[in-house]
Amino acid sequence: MTEQTTPQWKTLDKDLNRLARLEEATMHASRPLVGVGISLVFVSLAAVAAAILTGGATQSLAVVVAAAFGAYMALNIGANDVANNMGPAVGAKALSLLGAIAIAAIFETAGALIAGGDVVSTISKGIIDPAGLADTGVFVRAMMAALLAASIWVNIATWIGAPVSTTHSVVGGVMGAGIIAAGLGSVNWSTMGAIAASWVISPLLGGIIAAGMLAFIKWRVIYVEDKIAAARTWVPVLIGIMAAAFSTYLALKGLKKVVAIDFSTALVIGAATGVGIGLISVPFIRHQSNGLENRARSLKTLFRLPLVVSAALLSFAHGANDVANAVGPLAAIVYVQHSASVAGQVAIPLWVMVIGALGISFGLVLFGPKLIGMVGNQITKLNPMRAYCVALSAAVTVIAASWLGLPVSSTHIAVGGVFGVGFFREWYVERRARRFHRSLPPESLPRQERARRKLVRRSHFMTIVAAWVITVPAAALLSAACFLLLRAIGF
């Protein structure tokens, strides 16, 4: 009896295994569609909420459609921009991917809702003459085209794995729609020139400062005889500098709702906070360093917690600053539909900020891991010390740029910091190899071997730089096409 039924069971097991493999493959193939489905639900809910909240306004259909576009833009910000803040911490293994997503979602939302801008410029960054968009119908169409075009471009950049500036995407969108609506003469080309200059200034400043910080750590902490004693001296100083930079930035951004603070006062607040936090961190670092071996690998432990805190603060600052820029066109449309006039600056309704904040969280959770992994792992190898240099560079560069009045992108600064750390390591490793004759001179090696020894992946470098350069033109072309389409359908 057993001998007769055994072959039947073997056949059934084979069939069940085939079905199981087919089911597993189907689930794997359909997994990306889950995120798309949730995104569509969120966009739909944003549109429904806008319809409910503006039901009594005239021409509320424009607000409903714009709310859907704004939700789509917020999703793309979460998928792309936030990776720049969390990628280094994940790449350095100071945070798990899940932990990074949770921290970023909380602090991005808090930054947007607590310290987000009260008002936003309706003509983003002053690049279009308001007189050219005085007609409310043209203005609404231009803002909708800019919002949709910026969203599409950031979506494309995320898909190809390139971290781009969402603010520059919105700027390009406004410029493209403004040119179609009011002509080339309506563009403030000097402002556009300054924005173009930031493509070079932002990553260069971020890279130089990050490389300088890493050089300082190597010089004063890693390559000394007593590494632990050096770390006890200098790590609190680095923590104090980070605290000073963030306190200055948050004083300028977060406290403006309570009291007006000029740059000098913010610097004093930042300096006082930095000194206080630096002194408080002295016993903490001393306790953390007890029992550590006197080697460079042991020092990574001392940078993990400061790196996590810095990543959270970067997310808060990003939520406070960039979300308002992204939902600015939506806020402008809401104002125009209620007042039937165009204003230079408008207040951002709470529900608009909520859409932006929640959209960032959903976009980060659903689509953020791809860019987080790329920034954290695929450009160059990061550890807690290198990643801390990147975070410190981002904070210090933003403050320095604000003081100098330079238009910079937080995205470009953070990614430029990663590149700066990587290129500095390449130079330093080659320099030490030549000094100690540990390898053949690079010129004597085959070309393929020289390329293999590079510590920064050139393919990612070229892809990211190309995406930065074409962000504004690409968003402008998409916006012009969206504007013409909206006009053709009579919207």
From TrEMBL:
GO terms for molecular function: phosphate transmembrane transporter activity. It is found in: Membrane. It comes from Alloyangia mangrovi. InterPro entries: Phos_transporter. GO terms for cellular component: membrane. Keywords: Membrane, Phosphate transport, Transmembrane, Transmembrane helix, Transport. Belongs to the inorganic phosphate transporter (PiT) (TC 2.A.20) family. This is Phosphate transporter. It is a multi-pass membrane protein. GO terms for biological process: phosphate ion transmembrane transport. The chain crosses the membrane at residues 33-55, 61-83, 95-116, 136-158, 170-189, 195-217, 229-252, 258-280, 301-320, 348-367, 387-406, 412-429, 461-486.
